[in-house]
Amino acid sequence: MAHDEIVDHYSALARTALAGQRITDGGFGPACYDDTAALPDGAVLASLGCGNPVAVADLRAGETVLDLGSGGGIDVLLSARRVGPHGTVFGLDASPAMVDLARRNAEQAGTSNVRFLHGTIEAIPLPGHAVDVVISNCVINLSDDKAAVLAEAFRVLRPGGRFGVSDVVTAQVLDEQARQRAEQRIGCVAGSLTVQEYRDLLAAAGFIAVTITLTADHGDGVHSAIVQAVKPAIGPGLEIRPMREGDAEQVLAIYQAGLDTGQASFETTAPSWDAFTASRLPHLRYVAVDVDSGEVLGWVAAAAVSARPVYAGVVEHSIYVHPGCQAHGIGRALLSAFIAAAEDAGVWTIQSGVFGENTASLSLHQALGFRVVGTRERVGRHHGVWRDVMLIERRSAVIGA
Ligand SMILES: C[S@@+](CC[C@H](N)C(=O)[O-])C[C@H]1O[C@@H](n2cnc3c(N)ncnc32)[C@H](O)[C@@H]1O
User: Fold this and answer.
1) Which one-letter DSSP state was computed for residue 21?
2) 3-230 in CATH: which number?
3) Which CATH class is domain 238-395?
């Protein structure tokens, strides 16, 4: 089935469920669960999965989860319970009617830490490094571009993030007759990958620690399976190198992600590349890059504070680490390299301003020789709130000593 036919098919099922009738699609569904007690009937009866990915996902309180092809939302609601009030679960589905059904089910369940998004799993409408866990239930087999789905899952996961899905796989390539027989019995078999193809595509996307566990035998070599993999954590292979023109998109995306936290700056929108580049010194801009994936994970850059010769060795810096990649030592590696490069360039004072609430940034800077020289009290308004800015600076012990 082509993508549009698939969406029409599931939209029709969703409308039936919205009308209060039971739906079924190839024999799978609620039977895969034994933990649905407190869920609304609407969510349980609309279940069209082929397993229970939540049961094996080892979700922890506070985590962010994404369910690819969330349908009526059963796995989103089950995940929401596990991650608790400080976690968030996104459900993504290409069928607007399914999104409506899922929202209604969430409302009936009284669940507030969930968000249902309309979109495709081949182009996930979330930024990179946004989620801890990707789950899915009997959806990836339907996609006509599984490589894109797995690459997108990899992109949105944080380093060290987990991929755990239920899906239909085949033990070996099925001949046409076997495929047709299986398709008549359980549907959604047509696009299934073999176990080896799944492994190869996950590895090509960058995943490691791949395991595929067959959970139910549907005959003719067709199985339900739990597929698990991990996005590698940031290893020792972190490279700090000068920022290049080609880094523009990733640098600005990290800048925006930092601004979106509300703790980085009074600014709310990242500048254009032209504006960014015009105001920063070309020889004092660095990026931290994951050498395995080539991804930019953070950046540091400096601007001159004055055109007066007396201040020639004084710069103001900004440092941004992708919010999804913090606590991996990236900020420390970037700032250390920047300080060394600045001293090589004859800089004697590096200064900046940090919101008082940004304790992580203050600790990092203090650990590398910055001191707080004062607090500018309620110096500017940010989203309507007057905020303090701590002025920090690092006086070099070697330049102009
Ligand atoms: C077999 S149902 C599974 C629904 C749900 N995961 C469950 O376990 O009940 C497949 C779901 O995936 C959605 N879907 C299919 N292809 C998709 C795609 N390429 N992008 C996003 N959603 C898709 C369908 O609209 C449908 O809701």
Assistant:
1) -
2) 3.40.50.150
3) alpha beta
